[in-house]
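TEACHING EXERCISE
Course module: macromolecular assemblies
Task: Read the component lines below, then compare them to the predicted structure of the full complex.
Student: A.B.
Group: 4
Components provided:
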Amino acid sequence: MVQIFFTYFALVSIVAGILTVSLRSPVHCGIALLALLGHVAGLFVLLHAEFVAVVQIIIYAGAILILYLFVLMLLNLKTEERYFHRRHAWYITGVGALTVELLMVLLASRFDGAKGPATVEAVEQIGNSMAIGIVMFSDYLLLFEIVGVFLLGAIVGAIVLAKTPSQADLSGDER
Amino acid sequence: MVPVSAYVVVSAILFVTGLAGVLIRRNFIIVMMSVEIMLNAANINLVAFASHLDSLGGQIMALFVIAIAAGEAAVGLAIIIVVFRGKIATNVDQINLLKW
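Instructor-supplied answer key:
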């Protein structure tokens, strides 16, 4: 059963990723990206990471992608005939060769390592969200605070960049 | 039970797809969407190894990656709006004001 779901989620996310890169209309690319994000969230559920899956849906699909679509509709882009770099099309050949190389290496690897304490049973006893919360606000507290400051900086930067320049700014006097 | 190498392979394919998108697309917004694909591939890797090694650190790193992606999207789209307002097209090869 898990194999069937994994195959479905993996295949659809790969196809959606390829569509995101190759479709012509930017809005269609956004919709394909939405499909990709949803199916990656499904992969997270299969990996017993329910909290990350829900955050993926809420933040990625609900906030970031909507931001992209808003900007697309705000800018009213016209779709161009030549939407690829034709000159750099040989990159695809190199990228394909790189993929085959990567897959050969990855499939032959064993991926062993020291096991941690958070087995599936141990996490299920207190719930995924609570387990993540306990670790995040103890071991990873400094990173959490840094990410908070980073997001504040991103908000301020986005507002400063996208603000409509006033008349005083344009004439350049007294500031 | 799906082996962890299967997740790593899916992640590698998605990452290379995103990389190809960054290299070959001309529209700046699509380039940023391709970056999102690459960040998602990294997230799959982090969560797969968190599950494989019975540790929660990977899942928390995935959450931080999502937060960074949100900030990157906000600032990048603000830059796109500024560039478009200056009547420069949104194709990356036409934005060459800083090119030496």
